[in-house]
Amino acid sequence: MEQNLRIPGPTPIPDDVRAAQSAPMINHRGPEFAEMLRETSAGIGQLIGTDGDVFLLTGSGTGAMEAAIVNTLSPGDRVLAVSIGAFGDRFARIAQVFGAAVERMDFEWGTPADPAVLAAHLASHDPYRAVLLTHNETSTGVANPLRELAAVVHGATGEPLMVVDGISGLGAMPFEMDAWGVDLVVSASQKAFMASPGIAIAAIGARAHAAEASATMPRFYWDFSEARNLGAKGQTPWTPAVSVLYGLRLGVAALVEEGPARTWARHAAIAAGAAAGLEALGFRLVAVPEARSATVTAAWLPDGVDWAAFDAAMLQRGLVVAGGQGKWAGKILRFGHMGDVDWSEIEEALAVTAEALTDLDHASDPNAARATGRAAYDAQMGASVG
């Protein structure tokens, strides 16, 4: 049975990427690797709108988050961590572990950060060294209004650094690093970039680069100065995930060829279809329409539906979706739809979801879910083309 992987990462890998990741090893200090590293880094920079450094480091997205913290901050620095879910909480914890004086601004799970609330807080408190923000909160299916939040941060006293977790949004959702004034953003290979896990991505603007000189948090493996020095030679500081980079190069090239505007429109249309299809099955979505993520749709489980039994019924039919995290474990499902995804895969996932609900005595109409989802998908695609 073929698996329909609909979790928010790792995401499905295109056939050419999978084949590339099986290629023989090469010298990671040689010219072939250097060209691959430079091509991939430049492609990511193009996709996210930056002329700054883009480092590809062997590790996870959480590793990239740690790298962002330790390269720009010192113990005792005042940091405002704006959290809208589990991954915003993680960013705050990383900064706390390394000694930052972290203040939390927590918004209710399922809602985005409010720029007006952030502006009022920044205006009424002593200056911060950095503000930590989440681009797209995978645990709740909520996207932050990042452009507006960026404008607020840059208007604040002391001009704090704007450091962003972009792990599940970059490459799939609108993002203009330099135009919006984002100082540092991180991501990972296994999300919208369509490769296997193993490469942490960090894009560093001029202000974040300047902050490295005074930052005193301990760092060795994640030291950006080492990445910069070796990157100038087409190398990485430590042994790289060569196989993953083979695939990441192709994933990035595919996105460059598609073009950001078309990629963003495709993801937005698929998200609209997924949301409409789930609602047709009787699900109540977590996020309000204007705050819904384009890469993961979260919905509350219907009353009386046990997550373990529901998940098992979907797995029997080859559908793999994500459940809730933290305090929402067993309460929601999360449909991932980023990277190598088209409408047919989501349409099939909706049908399987309906069948699994019927198994649990929640009669559902798979044809209605397909039709409703498709209509929303078509309407969104038509609006973007128009």
CATH fold-level assignment of the largest domain: Aspartate Aminotransferase, domain 2
The CA-CA distance between the termini, in Å, is: 39 Å
Q: Could you name the CATH homologous superfamily of the largest domain?
A: Type I PLP-dependent aspartate aminotransferase-like (Major domain)
Low-confidence stretches: none
Helices, by number, come to 14
Q: Rough shape?
A: globular
DSSP summary, beta strand count: 14
The level of helicity is 40-55%
The gyration radius over C-alpha positions equals 21 Å
| Biggest β-sheet strands, sense, barrel | 7 strands, mixed
Strand order of the largest sheet: 2-10-9-8-5-3-4
Describe this structure in words.
The protein is an alpha/beta fold and 386 residues long. The protein has 2 domains: 16-257, Aspartate Aminotransferase, domain 2; 259-385, Aspartate Aminotransferase, domain 1. It is built from 14 helices and 14 strands. The chain has helices spanning 15-20, 31-48, 61-70, 86-97, 115-124, 146-154, 177-180, 206-211, 224-231, 242-258, 260-280, 307-315, 343-359, 366-385, and strands at residues 4-6, 53-58, 78-83, 101-106, 130-134, 136-137, 142-143, 161-165, 184-188, 199-204, 284-285, 296-300, 319-323, 332-336. The strands form 3 sheets. Strands 2-10-9-8-5-3-4 form a 7-stranded mixed β-sheet, with helices on both faces. A 5-stranded mixed β-sheet has the order 1-13-14-12-11. A two-stranded antiparallel ribbon has the order 6-7. Strand 8 (161-165), helix 7 and strand 9 (184-188) form a beta-alpha-beta unit. Helix 2 crosses helix 10, helix 12 (307-315) packs across helix 13 (343-359) and helix 13 packs antiparallel against helix 14 (366-385). The relative contact order is 0.17.
